[in-house]
């Protein structure tokens, strides 16, 4: 655009907002130029790490999880572009799904940072200061799951027959698969991990469940015209996302945890007190966002062999 065209466009923009363009141009005249550290809020980011011990590798652990949360936020941002776009077409659906999958690929590949980046002796010391905190308590990850699929696919397998479309959201929340990690196996009832988590996030997550009830990725896909649902690139992108999140990322997480928690002479619980083997491994929980896009054989073997080399469909 020429200088004159830019000024004309600025005039139209602010006049449409009921604003005086000259006031905004005057503000621009006196404004300081943008810097990288202001744009990225570098000082704020670098001031967010607070250690509870003097063990150096605790800093690795803190920053690693903060990076995870930033990536979770990026994922939720992309999911929103799918869920709240009216009459979305396959090309746009695929574009955002593949962005999300790439973010999860980053998360999967990054587990070596934690798995190879901390001394076992240091980790086993500073982890005690984290109890009963746990990565389980990432509300953003719970939001990703809820925004990905219908709630029935997140319900503990033992209780799915008790859940239907008329089930109150709170009842569904109380029967999510991850509730099993919040059981106090010695005293009964909910453990401190779950009590703290629900006090902080239960109301927010139930509202999120309501918001995404009809616009989660799986429902959104099933609302598409039949011809779109048969778009092979879209179906492959859906399958890729499901596999990336519920097998690849989970198993990388599982293997990283095993390096530390299974390294000693006795079994070690997760910091929240859960039986992390059964909570995390996909063959136990069978987290599957889009079950109808997988074959009977693929479903039966979910998580048993990591579905290595799962089939890329050539037609639907």
What report would you give on this structure?
With 316 residues, this protein is an all-alpha fold. The protein has a single domain (75-300), classed as Methane Monooxygenase Hydroxylase, Chain G, domain 1, CATH 1.20.58. The protein is built from 17 helices and no strands. The chain has helices at 3-16, 21-30, 36-39, 42-46, 57-83, 90-109, 111-115, 120-126, 139-148, 169-174, 192-211, 217-222, 226-229, 232-261, 276-280, 282-285, 296-300. Helix 6 packs parallel to helix 14. The longest helix has 30 residues, at 232-261. It starts with a helix and ends in a 16-residue tail after the last helix.
List keywords for this structure.
single chain; 316 residues; 17 helices
The N- to C-terminal Cα distance equals 45 Å
Text of the CATH class: Mainly Alpha
Tally the beta strands: 0
Category from helices, strands and their pairing = mainly alpha
Number of domains: 1
Sequence-ordered SSE layout with sheet pairings:
Blueprint: H1 3-16, H2 21-30, H3 36-39, H4 42-46, H5 57-83, H6 90-109, H7 111-115, H8 120-126, H9 139-148, H10 169-174, H11 192-211, H12 217-222, H13 226-229, H14 232-261, H15 276-280, H16 282-285, H17 296-300
